[in-house]
Amino acid sequence: MNYQLYSDVILLCNLPEEGLYASDIGTVVEQHQVEELETGYSVEFFDPLGNIVAVATLPGSYLRSPTSADRPTVRLVNSFAA
Fold this sequence. Notes:
The protein is mainly β. The chain is built from no helices and five strands. β2 and β3 form a beta hairpin. The chain is globular and about 40 Å long.
């Protein structure tokens, strides 16, 4: 699938080394075309406050477009400081 710049996408697989997990929502910020390879995308992932938590370059097969059946969820990733 071809994703447009600044469109939302949903991650399909876990990438724990990036702190990202399947169902995380990101925004496409760049498209990468390399001859004989799958189209890749740089995607920014944000927390609910709008802070960037990761930027990952991924093949298009790791992503999908959101649908009306999708609902955002929240996942606690670290403990609150005392």
